[in-house]
Amino acid sequence: MEFLSRDDAPFTSSQWEKIDETVVKTARQVLTGRKFIHIYGPLGAGVQSIHIDDFGKVSQGDTDFFGDSEDTDIIKTQGRKFVEIPLVYKDFSIAWRDVEYSKQTGLPLDVAAAAGAAAMCAKKEDELIFLGNKAAGCEGLTTASGTNKLAKKDWQTGENAYQDIAEGLETLTSLGFVGKFALTLSPDLYRQLQRLQPNTGLLEIDRVRELLDGNVYQTPVLGSNKAVLVCAEPQNIDLVIGQDLITGYLGADKLNHPLRVLETILLRMKRKDAIVVFE
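^ that's the sequence the OP posted. Answer follows.
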């Protein structure tokens, strides 16, 4: 990957390994969308666009004797468009004196700035997944048109949260969706589920997790009072990755060493009716 210009940097192979390890470890601690969305790729840093097929809404299977009904509905794309894969990045710098100090003393190079840049990139990735990006022409799980909308009751009262989520699950299964269902909550709603249900001795979050086979997550990018439920099978949604998270060298600047954590990603929604947004 010559475009990263790593050979021009003053770092040893072990120092690059430390930077890469820090970036990946930090990102994993932050990322939420990747915990349940299927990954498509990596396709390579040079891939700049990807097609998105819209399969629309289709009817259920048909039943007749000869299989020659004219009314049968074929599952096929209702429209295909090619979309740019956005670049997500954050720059950081390592001081030349820190590099020289590490060389002279043999002490590990401090790569805390790399961790900070990785965390910011990971947050941006989740923002792209859940909120989209108008400037980049990308829709997110909670902002896309054509999703199912359910009015949310007060989740601090009774069994409202469980009933709303069960209704969302019923909506998706009634549309024929099966497989992995995942619920993502804003931190305030996640906290509201940490309470005992009357006459059950169970936390509401435990009942919800059982309903969804444990696939319950939270992310601060949702802000407050937001939740989204998806059937997270790859035929419905996936996350396109061109270049996965990696660090490149930007060239010396006033003797110091600026670097960039970057990735190219795009959320691809093929069946928007596989999404329930609680409003």
